[in-house]
Design brief:
There is one protein chain. Helices cover 55% and strands 10% of the residues. By secondary structure, it is mainly alpha-helical. A three-stranded antiparallel β-sheet has the order 2-1-3. The longest helix is centred in the first third of the chain and has 21 residues. The termini are far apart.
């Protein structure tokens, strides 16, 4: 019995060590776009388009400045759609595509900072990234502000 416990403990130590090696910090390019992205989510969760065009444009500039091909080629067009949105429904559809692309980048780069939370709203069938665990749903705003769950941590 003691031997199986020791083997079990060794297994968990190796598994934890392997996870730590595979985890990566936030790439600088991704870190640069997070402030405007988070501001966009806040505005939409507040049922507002105030600041959305400027934040989307700022984020697009940061994406286009990154010449290494880090960001998906579709992201600037998504950000243009968001910047030009004249109503919340259109803005939220563009924000969904942007969120999906950023979440994929976090996953692809194995980011593990413990500071970013993927939240998912089953009603909107959409996910987004926040920096706290208290749900602030950008897809429904005040109608269902608390709808969703934290489904992943980066």
């Amino acid at each position: 019995m003691k031997r199986s416990n020791a083997l079990f403990a060794i297994f968990w130590i190796i598994a934890g060590w392997t996870s730590a090696i595979m985890a990566e910090p936030l790439p600088p390019a991704l870190g640069s776009v997070m402030p405007p992205y988070l501001a966009l989510g806040k505005a939409l969760s507040d049922d507002s388009l105030k600041g959305v065009p400027s934040q989307a444009s700022a984020m697009k500039s940061l994406v286009e400045r990154e010449k290494s091909g880090f960001f998906p080629k579709e992201l600037p067009a998504d950000l243009d759609r968001l910047a030009k949105a004249t109503d919340l429904d259109t803005a939220r559809l563009a924000y969904k595509d942007i969120s999906d692309r950023l979440i994929a980048l976090f996953r692809d780069h194995h980011v593990q900072t413990g500071h970013y939370f993927v939240c998912t709203c089953p009603m909107a069938q959409a996910s987004w990234i926040q920096i706290d665990k208290e749900i602030k749903n950008p897809f429904y705003g005040s109608v269902m502000l608390l709808c969703g769950d934290v489904t992943e941590t980066f």
